[in-house]
Amino acid sequence: MQNPWLYIGLFLVVGAIIPVVPIVFSALISPKKPNKIKQSTYECGMETVGDSWVQFRADYYIFALVFLVFDVETVFLFPWALSLKALPIFAVFEGVLFIMILIVGLVYTWRKGMLEWA
Amino acid sequence: MDATQVIFIVSAALIVVSALMVVTSRNLVHAALWLISALFGVAILYVLLEAGFLAVVQVVVYIGAIAIMFIFAVMLTRRDMLDKGPQVNASWPVALGLCLLTFVGLGFLLSRFGDKFSHLPGALPPNLDPLLALGNALVSPQAFVLPFEVASVLLLAALVGAVYVARNHK
Amino acid sequence: MDLFLTDPIKMVYDWLMQLLTGWGLPGAVANVLLILVGIVVLIIVAMTIDIMLVWLERKVVARFQGRLGPNRVGLFGLLQPIPDIIKLIIKEDITPTGADKVVFNMAPILSLASVIFLWAVIPLAATVYGADLNVGLLYLVAAGALGTLSIIMAGWASNNKYAVLGAYRQVATMLSFEIPMIAALLIPTILASSLSLKTITTAQGGVWFFWLSPLGALIFLVAAIAELGRSPFDLNEGESEIVSGYHIEYTGMKFGLFFAGELLHAFTFGAFIGILFFGGWSFFGIERIPGLGWMASSPYFGAVAVLLKGVFFYWVIMWIKYTVPRIRIDHMLAFNWKFLTPLSFVLLMVTAMVNRLLQDFANTPQWPIYVGGMFLSNILIGWITIEILRVYGRKQKAKEPVHPAAKSVAAPSAGHH
Q: How far is residue B164's CA from residue B159's CA, in Å, rounded to a whole number?
């Protein structure tokens, strides 16, 4: 059987090109009448107040950080989960230990109040 | 010149060009997006090395978590704080000379290895399922179970450190 | 003819291969060409399903809201998507001033592309699938990561406060709910011992994974709805709050791509729930009836089964969307990090332990012990969770101060009788 990654590679190329087709089609057909009012930023029909930069709350960054740690953890768990059937029973407990150590981390983060949306 | 070599050269070119654009882009978000393109090129290299699992993990962890964190961090800056000055400073000829010297030196050193670079990695044994072998290696006491558990402690340390640095010290 | 019934793709492939090599093309080039043809066909099928989903969505939302929905264009309004598409194509494409043109244009393309990429690994039948990747489940998560990226790009490039706010909140949601989703995905991995979607489906030949882990299916459903950005987690499209979030500055076909991408994403996740937990292409066990075996195991019925399950779960997702009000962002993040993530990890640990202990009974005449044990462990975890929530809820209620109006209402009625 041929390499499935060849299929995936070609799929990525074709799949990235296909959504461009309707856009190009639309760009050929649609009218183009740029106008300063039409192109102004939309703020419920009024003039914009202040520039378009909102204070980025640090809370978003904290959640992204906690997500990163747990994402790496779950990536480690994938090979463990795959070979669980064929391994002796203490392998289950090694994985459980891994998860418990990171649940301790989650509880620590919770208790320190980092999971609150201040 | 077979297909694997062509794909390797294309993805290597993608990585080098993207990395160059990361460093020289004036707009920070554009730099982050070029970084994503470089990471994607690395994922393609993993596929060429028959490490499909690592390729997908690269996309999930690097592009899906770390690159998004970079973009969040970049968005903390104001939009009009683009880099407006010149991209090079006054001593750029010296830097260029040193780079060329290093390149020639490395090229000479690598060419002394002879033809050890001219073959592809050996084929995996046919009955080996790489994912099952990886899972086996991660939990068997003769292999990597201790690094596996220490990795979780390392992640815990990273989490605790980040929480400590980021919280409001009252 | 036999091959036509059991493996139509191989039949077409062999025939075309003979044709092309007969014309003188070298084998490798012909192979790549045939793969490209297959990919284009698959993507066209996915986009056709997408177009029909527009009709389905409008009809179902209308019925939920007590009205008729589209019924003018074609019989039952079935041709309604066509005027919709024509309308979107002929609209003018307005790019706001100050928007970052390259990123602004790339975002909708990446958004739809990330959904199309998912179709490469969906097995519609035992012999009808794109590629049988040995890391299919992780590929699913990776394509979701690309979708998340397209949202940030859209929000940032639009040069608009509301777009940026909507994009931040949406991405925070999607990132947070990926953890319980991946933990729920680890459960079919443990049960089937493989990451490949085709192997997971064939491993459900005996009993569907839903019976082995109903709580896992439920967690995956909830996390998938959050990943899709559908209500009740649609902070992005807070129509009453931030007027369309990151979609604000997009007009015409670019908005169409976002919209179509979202619908197709919902349907694809419906199909994934069907494949991962509800048996995929197996037609509810009909193929085990002797005599009907040939019919039910043919790829045509398998594909129909997968698509029907996809439509059913898409309907469930829509049902939830049009019934439940939107959740506030802090409630939603608390729900994820304080409830769903610990629950999904506890479920994962318990499933791993119970599965390992009972797996010797799996394919033997004592299989009810295995199935019953797994099912009961899930019910036990669910019951313990509800008890914990109940105790916690009572404590919270006891801490609430009694509203002063309630005291004055209670007092007169105490004196009446």
A: 9
